[in-house]
Amino acid sequence: MALRTPSSRLSKSLAASIPYTSSAIPHRAPPPSSTWHHPTPSCSFATVSPVPPVTQSSTSRSGPTAMVFMNMGGPSTLPEVGPFLSRLFADADLIPLGRLQSYLGPLISRRRTPKIQDQYAAIGGGSPIRKWSEHQAAEMCAILDTRHPESAPHKPYLAFRYADPLTEDMYTRLLEDGFGKQGRAVAFTQYPQYSCSTTGSSLNELWKWRMRLEGKEPEKGGVQWSVIDRWPTHPGLVEAFAQNIEAQLATYPEEVREDVVLIFSAHSLPMSVVNR
Description:
By secondary structure, the chain is of the alpha/beta class. It is built from 8 helices and 6 strands.
């Protein structure tokens, strides 16, 4: 297995160093020999059990396996808002500011920090995304240990792009846990739809830290990566949307339900980003 990202910058680097594997239609066409590897996480829940220590001497056939949840992240406390915004506005994949990025990014983040801190204070003093991501990742690994013992134990990791735990911290932990000796790891984006400004940015960051911490030719192959880079039509996701819609429709009288208007809202992107 190998790390692959659809972004053009990362794709060129990967093509020269490791084979392609992944799990969905790429943003840019991969080589004809490309194949996709898709570990399929369950959408159900299981009781969380303590995560066992992970070493490369584990006895399962293909395990252990690191499950890396990639996401934007969010400031867990008010003091984290400034660093969060600073990293966000410094990311040219998300907010391209050209040659003025290093100047405008810090300026914008400093000016916006007080207002954003007030907004986080109004909802309890921080974002809950880390807490819920840790819970979700642990639940998923518990399910995978039961359903796929051949790749167990599965160990959860978070790799946030702009907040703790950052990608570099996650990668350091992977190496400390022994995955640098051809250990299996799955980079699992938490953005269902692919975009070069979200998943693409996270994969570029993952590749950057792979190069810095493992080098161009990692000893004995280094971490062996697979990627789940999009899953907008996964049956579990579609069913979750459908159940929520049906629950709300049930609050209307039966005789008017067929006339209820459904409004789908999403974070939009400029076509220049879509076509990147």
